Amino acid sequence: MPKRFVVAASEFTDLPRFPAGFELAEALTAAARHLHGTESPDSTMSTAVELAVRLLPGAEHAGILEFERGSRLRTLAWTDEVVRFAADPRHGGPRAPHPDWDNLWTTPVVRIADSEADGGGNALAGLGLRSALSLRLRADRRRLTVLTAYARGPRVFDEDATRIGRLFTAHVSLALDSATVREQLTEAMRTRDLIGQATGILMERLDIDAAGAFESLVKASQRENVKLRDLARRIVDANTGAGGRGVGER
């Protein structure tokens, strides 16, 4: 199950409910500050769905879903359990929360006026969610990430809501990209430090220079079919008494 970061509604008291006009520009600026203040892609997405309910006119629930071609949807962030049920196959959800969702591969917005118009034969109608506004966040050849706002009444999301939604998701996409880069850089730094520690341990243990120690680490990684980072962690843990077998030990 994806980890969800809960954001208290009180954190968004600087944002007006369903802003318009000049107030909208101020609200989007405040929303951007909240989004760029998050620490990881997960917390960015969880903040985004909470903000969506506050900013998009008529929105009562929101979620971010990811779809990979050939597989089912995955719910990455949600405001409540209703949103999770809308797409989670473990709860009877389909491959998409509504029939037009697949259009988001080629268009940035899909708007559902009334999910009961087809006789209620989809997950949204079954959950009492009659309106939906889906906005594409990311898309490549195999993966699609979408923010969707939901409402219980029909024909809730009009052109104004769509315009605000597109402006808002532009900020979300930028913040999500920034958070992803920060996370990758942080992980790269941690990996570098870990490999450096493991190399130092091997230098001392095997009485070899740094190049030889690193080569030994790489060969062991290939031989055991283990990522270099994971093997380095095993060596460092073993050296600090956490157990495990180091490179060069039998």
What features would you describe in this structure?
The protein contains seven helices and five strands. The protein has 250 residues and is of the alpha+beta class. It folds into two domains: 9-183, GAF domain (Beta-Lactamase, 2-Layer Sandwich), CATH 3.30.450; 187-239, Winged helix-like DNA-binding domain superfamily/Winged helix DNA-binding domain (Arc Repressor Mutant, subunit A), CATH 1.10.10.10. The chain has a five-stranded antiparallel β-sheet, with helices on both faces. Helix 1 runs parallel beside helix 5 (159-206), helix 5 crosses helix 6 and helix 5 (159-206) packs across helix 7. The longest helix is centred in the C-terminal third of the chain and has 48 residues, at 159-206. The radius of gyration is 23 Å and the shape is elongated.
> Over the alpha carbons, how many angstroms does the gyration radius reach?
23 Å
Estimate the strand proportion.
5-15%
- Summarize the amount of helix as a percent range: 40-55%
What is the ordering of alpha helices and beta strands?
A: HHEEHEHEEHHH
Q: What is the CATH class name of the largest domain?
A: Alpha Beta
How many extended strands? Answer: 5
* C-alpha termini separation: 38 Å
> Any idea what the CATH superfamily of the largest domain is called?
GAF domain
The total tally of domains equals 2
Classification by helices and strands: alpha+beta
Main sheet: strands, sense, barrel: 5 strands, antiparallel
CATH topology-level name of the largest domain: Beta-Lactamase
Strand order of the largest sheet: 2-1-5-4-3
CA-based shape: elongated
Low-confidence stretches: 1-9, 242-250
- Continuous helix count: 7
The CATH architecture of the largest domain would be 2-Layer Sandwich
Mean pLDDT: 83
